[in-house]
Amino acid sequence: MAVEIPSFLHLARPLAPAVIGVQPTTAPLNVIIQPQAVFSILDHAIRRDIRDTQSTRVIGALLGVRSEDGMEVEVRNCFAIPHTENEDQVEVDVEYQKNMLALQLKANPREVLLGWYTTSLELNNFSALIQNFFASPETGTFPHPAVHVTVSTEPGKEIEAKAYISAPVGVNAERAAESCLFIPVPYEIRYGEAEKSGLELISGAKDSENRAAPVVSDIEGLERAVDQTLDLLDRVAEYVSSVLDEEREPSNALGQFLMNALSLAPKVDPQDIERDFNNHIQDVLVVSYLANTIRTQIDLSQRLATATLTMGGSDALAATGGGEGGEKGERGGQRGGKRGGRGGRGGGQQREPREPTE
User: Fold this and answer.
1) Does the keyword Cytoplasm apply (predicted)?
2) What are phi and psi of 156, to 5 degrees?
């Protein structure tokens, strides 16, 4: 009778450059990407040099914040790095990368270097070289793993992104410096309500001929949001009706989601909602009226202050001119009095007659 013996595969720890007192980590990460970083990557791909001597992909550095335990990173910013790539070699402008990184970290002290990105889903030997450069202790993210994000930018196709970290592999230290193992990690493109509104506004340009989306006012934006909400409610009501009529297969996950959404709705009467809404509108109008009144008062006070300064300057000039005229008149009177006094003293004395000279 054969005895089943479990088989195991023992893998040694990959070779990596060691730093005294620092232990590198290859723990799984959760990568969060902000929309502005994705837009910067797409803009870099559109503005790339399409000459035959240049590479078909572009690369750049990723900046952001890292959690205290290092298990989650958030990509907030990025910048492009010039490079040339062909079948034989790849050249990266290291000095430009260092200067731009120092400038970015000076402008945003809370951000750190997280890794790099490229606009190609392909992973090759050059990708391993660049990954090791960004993961090195001197110029990279060591002891934290460098994050590598790939974004596909092929025209006419949907944008696809992937995130990786790496582990060095090789039979010796030299081979480990030239190769690495890319490990996929989960990622998420996270955006807030304000960013979602901006993305929806920008996405409206795809349906126009001039590829432009006009900026709407607050009232128009509110009207569009209400119309979209009504359309979604109609779709949900149609789906529920079709499920009740056994025209469509029910979905437990969707039903649970609808139950959770309905449980968040406040249980109040429609009249109370209308009254609260009217009170809110009145409060908004009062605040708007007060803001306009304060703005008008500030503008009026500024104009009055300017007029007062202008009139005060004219009066000061006139007073200065009058004072100088009075001083001159007083000085002239004093001089005239002195001369008159001298004449009086001269008139009281008799002058001796002089003989005519031949």
Assistant:
1) yes
2) 85, 0
